[in-house]
Amino acid sequence: MNEAEVALLAEQVRVDGYCVLPGLLPPDRVQAMLVRFEALIAEKQAREAFNRGEHRFQMYLPWAPPFSAPVFYEHPAVLAVTEAVIGSDPALVYFASDTPLPGADYQRVHSDTRLLFPEAAHSLPAYGLVLNVPLVDCSEENGSLEFWPGGTHLLPSAVDRERLAQTMQSRRANLKAGDGLLRDLRMWHRGTPNHSTRLRPHLALVYVRPWYRFEQEVPALPRADYDALGERAQRLLRYAKIY
Ligand SMILES: O=C(O)CCC(=O)C(=O)O
After folding, report:
1. What is the pTM of this model?
2. Dist CA 166 CA 65 (whole Å)
3. Residue nearest atom 2 in ligand 1 by C-alpha distance
4. Could you tell me the sign of the dihedral formed by the alpha carbons of 159, 85, 190, 141, in that order?
5. Is 104 contained in some domain?
């Protein structure tokens, strides 16, 4: 991407709360991730209850192949837009997935992080972005994410989101497998029913301004793996749990 393209996408994130980066991951990488993902979620389902409503899982993912690929977490287009929006020294603080399984229902309209000053009506610049990458094609049949662009990331939290959202125009993230959706953590969204017979996984990476403490668990990786990373990746992962 050239400078003007990056600037345009960054402006979309600032104003609309999101941008789409089509064809982010190559199909063979998506396929390898999907195979591993399906095995992991089957194991989780065998031992744990659903944790995001009926037939819906949030699942942390291992920082290991096929997921821990620079083409994913250090993608030049993602980092260029991210740095244009949240500054030149982002930290990567979350790697997980959201998956409606067949039978999943609507979630409540929500944001993925807290507001810095929830008691005030200030609208602040972005301090965290989430990159979602679906591993299958998404549609209204299999529960594509619904979101409310155009300013909900700038609204105070003391509003009735559920009620207001009904009066506003939403969009569905009907993405192709391997596309990227980069969105402000604050933008309103919700999971929707999965009427298909297959699960609909979204990978999620969160990048934040270096001073922001995201509420969720950070990625974890062995010392030897961390030491083998390049300088940029080590910097991105400086708050990861190294064991
Ligand atoms: O990926 C989705 O369908 C929505 C997931 C979500 O927003 C959540 O579980 O908090």
Report:
1. 0.97
2. 41
3. 191
4. positive
5. yes
**Is 3 inside any structural domain?**
no
Closest to 188 measured CA to CA, from 153, 145, 156, 154: 153
The Cα–Cα gap between 85 and 79 comes to 10
85 is in which domain, residue-wise?
17-114+123-242
Tell me the pLDDT tens digit for each residue of 152-179: 999 988 889 999 999 999 999 999 999 9
Burial degree of 22 (CB within 10 A; 0-12, 13-18, 19+): exposed
- Map tokens 């993912």 to a residue: 61
CA 89 – CA 133 distance, rounded (Å): 22
Question: What is the CA(78)–ligand 1 centre distance, in A?
Answer: 20
Q: Please report, in angstroms and rounded to a whole number, the separation of the first and last CA atoms in the chain.
A: 36
Quick check: 196 and 102 in contact, CB under 8 A?
Answer: yes
What's the CA-to-centroid distance between 183 and ligand 1, angstroms?
A: 13
The per-residue pLDDT for 26 is 97
Q: What is the CATH number of the domain that holds 210?
A: 2.60.120.620
Pocket test for ligand 1, best of 140, 174, 181, 189 (most atoms within 8 A of CB): 189
In this structure, the number of other CB atoms found within 10 A of the CB of residue 184 comes to: 25
Average pLDDT over residues 36-52: 97
| DSSP for residue 142 | T
- In whole numbers, what is the pLDDT of the chain averaged over residues? 97
Number of domains in the chain: 1
Residue 59 DSSP SS3: strand
